[in-house]
Amino acid sequence: MTIKKLILVFVLLAAVLGFGPDSEASWSELSPALEASLVELSSSSPDSLIDVIIFLNPREALSRVTQISSSRARRSEKVKSVIANLKGATVSGIENIRYYLNEKSAAPVREFWITPALTARLNAEQINRVSDMESVKLITEDVLLSYIEPVEVKDAPSMATANSTQLSALGVPQLWSRGLTGAGRLVCSFDTGVESDHPALSSKWRGNHASLVSSWYSPVSPNNPPTDNIGHGTHTMGIMVGSTPADTFGVAPGAEWITGGVVDQGRSLSVTLADIVAAFQWALNPDGDINTTDDVPDVILNSWGIPKNMFVPCDSTFNGVVEAVEAAGIVTIFAAGNEGPNPMTIRSPADNAVTPINTFSVGAVDDNRVVASFSSRGPSSCNSTDKKPEVMAPGVSIRSSFKGGGYSYMSGSSMAAPYVAGIVALIRQYDPEATVSQIKNALIASAIDLGVAGEDNDYGYGFVDASIVLDYLDASGPSDFDIERINYPQSGIAEIGSSSQIEILIRSSAPITGQLIGKISAEKIAGVSIHTAEASFVFGGGGLFAYSSQPYVIELSSSIYHGQHLPFVLELGYPGEEAIEIIDFDVVAGIEPPGTIETHSSGVLELTVSDFGQYGLGPESNYNTGGRGLRYRDGANLLYEAGLIVATGAGQMSSSIRDSLGEFAVSDFQPVSALSSGSYGLDGGFHHTAELNATNSTAVTGLTIFQETVNFDTYEDNRFVIMSYSLRNNSASSIDGLRMGMLVDFDLPGGDEQLTYDPSLNLVYQYRASGEVVGLLGLKGVTSFSSVKNPAGSKIGFSSDEKYALISSDGIDIDEATSGDFLLVLTAGDLLLSEGSIY
Predict the structure, then answer these.
(1) Of 237-251, 375-389, 397-411, where does mean pLDDT reach its minimum?
(2) Model pTM above 0.90
(3) Closest Cα to residue 728, out of 718, 738, 743?
(4) Is 421 helix (H, G, I), strand (E, B) or coil?
(5) Which residues have a Cβ under 8 Å from the Cβ of 758 and sit 6 or more positions away?
């Protein structure tokens, strides 16, 4: 039998579902400025359109990145983990919001992953409708932003005869004398742009050897090299890195720079608050490749602030963006502002004080270290006892580069902040793995107290002293040892649900003779136990490498998911002495998924799909890769396993289901085109697409499977996911007798399931007497349904021949007479695919 398309569907019948918690109540608010605008428009112009940003509840994303931030993994691994976790975070109800905005917004909808947020252009009634939707936290106007303008701008000479008095006062030349110039480090600014051909800056632009997109972010002029019509961003960048062969006035002249032109660029088309969010998202992954991390900056200088009264005092909405980049090791530095000298004049988010260092602000002093009259003051809007800013730096009559290839003197806190950002680059050259908290705490600890004794709202902790800042780092400087390789001698992996052995090969930076003791630990990782934590490393005859004398033994609980990166620490020291080296390393749990997973979420139903023929992939599944499984209203995962079987005969098969022992088996299917991140189609559904083939098996060669999955957010259709497959024969001969099937093992809470087949719908469903129902509906091309009963308390296994038998029967073979733990198989076949044909 020849068919044109196979369409399979997961269905949850909501009319009889009786489990899972109700969705959480809406807890959103409108920003004060937006609320005032809506009150005014409701009577005068109710149809007027407003550009808004809708911020959603970020708790899952933030909880994930907080764990990463506190781990001791290397920074490169933190960057990858932060991006992956932010992109993978689920937000309840977001599909409903997407659908509504795509239907109603008068402008294209932008969506962010660095924090769950979307932009739209809506009228007052529509804004109020969105504010009542699940998970919406805050709606605010997408206002135009401007930079923090300097209080003085005047021409400066093009050449200085000596190091500036400001650099000397900060102690920067002392770090230069140690060879620390920022070489190999990368700084970033969010400002008015940078004049990329300025003589003091041009050779340091990363775009000279990297892609434009990874070196310059601009919503106004993305396809041309960086420009700066105002000159402010060129000035602040010069303070960080500026130099010519005869004149060094930047703190880190050896560093490279990238920039985001995201505040007033002197054009009629300015940029908005949403562009700031987009810029932070860009900075986390400038080149768009999650596997590269050298494009991610060490520090971001921020010369902007949200106008007062736009957000409520101490609003935490923007904190998630800052926390995300800092979890990846990017230090954020904010100019305190030029709206002093009155108290509480620092703008958001720099005035926030969720932690002592999270939004790190810098105020300005003159050459006598007296706070400038214009420098914005604390306390924080969060609490009158939370003092601001954090530290001070020179900010009066600062000479630096300016637009047009020239130089100028400027005064402002935006001149003070880049001095501190430049010092961050010097610290990172000294210790590339220094954490954000280590760096910020060192800046605070090194500060020279000014004003009243102790921290205060004029000077913060005082004037930064770069000459001693390295003395306050928690780290011990550059590494002398590193991990060369990690082996798993038992099974080649760190097994989940059992113990595993780990062998470690370490490398010394110089020949060494003698013995080191190495102890491993795992901080703040639930589900990890260490049974053998210590081994020795013996270097003989001036060697560079040494293996652990015995394997370390760890145990991973079943709560760990496959592919999870677990941060460990190896402490090395001589026998009987304290550690001389601390090395972070990752253990990858279980078997990493061979492709990508995405989760359909309709607001009431969630299903995780993949591009390697396996589905569910959540807790309580036989292959948990950190997915959600199949859930209704955020209840328990209902899907133990779902996978594909394709065969042309016994022994001629590709499979992604369990093995003969009933255990997880690596899928024979691999992605050809990776699973898409998803988009809305003309049908109103949210679609994910992928192409896969059986590269792990030679049994069915030349076959490509096109997969499309879709869910709908509307109330009538939000309880199912459609799974559609097309097949293409890429070989030079026909494929005859082809059968394709899907095995699905639902597990309803409490077990004791029963089955029923409804021929009028071509539907088979499982249910319990208490009312829970899940099912499979064959929409097109499905020729048979069958059921298999799992043994009590375990899962049945299938040999290769038994798998073929599962998809070889025709008709309906459903056990409606008994109850137990069932699995279902639906099949299409026999198919004849001629050479080059698509079905």
Answers:
(1) 375-389
(2) no
(3) 738
(4) helix
(5) 764, 765
